[in-house]
Amino acid sequence: MTTTLTVSDKLPEHAVFRETLAAGEPWLHEVKTGQTLRILDLEGNQAVDTLFYSLAEPRERFDPQRTLRRQRSLYLTTGTVLYSNLGNPMLTIVADTCGRHDTLGGACAQESNTVRYALEKRYMHSCRDNYLRACAHDGRLSKQDIGANINFFMNVPVTAEGGLTFEDGISAPGKYVELRAEMDVIVLISNCPQLNNPCNAYNPTPAELLIWN
Amino acid sequence: MMDLLLEETVPGGGHASLIVKRGQSLRLADLRGGANASLMLFNATEKSERLNLPDTLKCQHTAKLTAGHCLYSDMGRVLAAIVADTCGWHDAIGGVSNADEVNDKYGVGRYQELRNAFYRNGTDNLLVELGKWGLGISDLLMTLNLFSRVDVTSEGALNFVPGNSKAGDYVELYAPMNTLVVLTAIQHPLDPNPDYAPKPVKLALSQADRQVAEFCRTSCEENMRGFINTDRFFL
Questions:
Q1: What φ, ψ does residue B172 adopt, rounded to 5°?
Q2: Which residues of A touch B54 (CB under 8 A)?
Q3: B59 vs A72: CB contact, 8 Å cut-off?
Q4: Cα–Cα distance for residue pair A44/A62, rounded to 1 Å
Q5: Domain residue spans of chain B
């Protein structure tokens, strides 16, 4: 699949939901079948760590390996169908002005930060803290349900030798991705608070979330 | 020489699970060539702690797994260290097929007609084995496919590489903690072979010396910290 940048014709003033999510905050929200969710990188190179669950049966969740092998491509962009662990289409990417979104890097956590950076980084804020906090308050999801997520706007290419690199420079202020829900879903986002990784210039920034009917 | 505790052959299409205790090592061998073993790992005493492939990959800046690498849990601990590997590449991308995918690819293969040669699928095999430990579909995360290789082009295209594993190739996992290993010997979802023909995998459990994992522990600073986290679980 070749990366295809696709602009949306949807107007923000017609959105039924519009919210700016500050850096380091969680967001848990339902998106119904046929609705379109836009995730917008307001200042550029922000990682928006995102998980999807079936609203009807939250054990059914986004499955990165099935999604990648069904499209025979590592990268997500316009036309990508996000599949569930039961093999059902959950959402389709219908617009994308960035062109690179990571599916292998996962979310940051206190524990992985100790491994990646230093043992004393344990007490910094992390995406998994956000996920667990949002799940605990919502009540429908728990640690068990937190699988591998998408990092929208992150560029994590795999080399021919099987190396994994976190690169910058793909996203920019105003880049966005739009997803049409193929089933009723719960969207769980952590707007990544990572301060140790050059991929976001050590500067987590806000994202905007919009929903259209 | 390591002290052999158990040998067992998982037939093609079969599934198995066992606890590899701290200080033990599990060797998986491809008896005929072209095998694939799909794997999940758990902390045997706190099974909410599971193999986390994204953490495994990003902590070691790799998309493939081979000797010297560690397999990380979501708690920053090392569930297993790859202390030996004769085929050089194990796949973290392809995952496991479900019943519909197997049916689409190979056709109908029911127990009614085929008895124990019926067409099984990796998802259900792992779910059955997980169920025996009180685990379920929420615990089936990204799986590791031992013996298989999937290349990624600069455009992102995924290409299964046939012949990655030859007859006699093996990979050995040392457990620095008590690790529940759940696996199935089943074809890789991207294996282009149009016939259902999963290959057997031989398991050999041994008592090992911690020294066998020393080169994994010191292969990068991240792994040194991962082993510190792991040891702290046993204080």
A1: -125, 130
A2: 104-107, 148-149
A3: no
A4: 25
A5: 3-232
Rounded Cα distance, B94 and B207, in Å: 31
Q: pLDDT at residue B34 above 80?
A: yes
Q: Give me chain A's average pLDDT, please.
A: 94
Give the three-class secondary structure for A202.
coil
Percent of chain A at pLDDT > 70 equals 97
How far is B144 from B73, CA to CA, in rounded Å?
13
Residue B113 amino acid letter: E
What ranges make up the beta strands (E) of chain A? 17-21, 26-31, 36-41, 48-54, 81-83, 89-96, 101-102, 150-152, 175-181, 185-191, 207-212
Q: Does A1 score more than 50 pLDDT?
A: no
Among the listed residues A49, A30, A50, A43, the one whose alpha carbon sits nearest the alpha carbon of residue A208: A43
Q: How far is A131 from chain B (nearest CA, A)?
A: 13
Buried b / exposed e over B47-75, threshold 16 CB at 10 Å, is: eebbbbbbbbbbbbebbbbbbbbbbbbbb
pLDDT (tens digit per residue) in B110-164:
999 999 999 999 999 999 999 999 999 999 999 999 999 999 999 999 999 999 9
C-beta of residue B79 within 8 angstroms of C-beta of residue B213: no
Q: How far apart are CA B67 and CA B88, in angstroms?
A: 7
Q: State the DSSP H helix or E strand holding residue B170, giving kind and residue range, or none if neither.
A: strand B170-174
In chain A, where the domains are located: 16-212
- The residue type at A121: K
Residue type, A41: D
From the CB of residue B137, how many other CB atoms can be counted at a distance below 10 Å? 17
CB within 8 Å: B54 and A106: yes
Residue A148, chain B, CB below 8 Å: the answer is yes
For B150, nearest residue in chain A (alpha carbons): A162
pLDDT grade for B2, boundaries at 50, 70 and 90? low
List the structure tokens of B173: 């996992």
CA A106, chain centre distance (Å): 9
Residue B26 or A155, more confident: B26
Q: Over 80: is that where the pLDDT of A2 sits?
A: no
Q: What's the pLDDT at A197?
A: 84
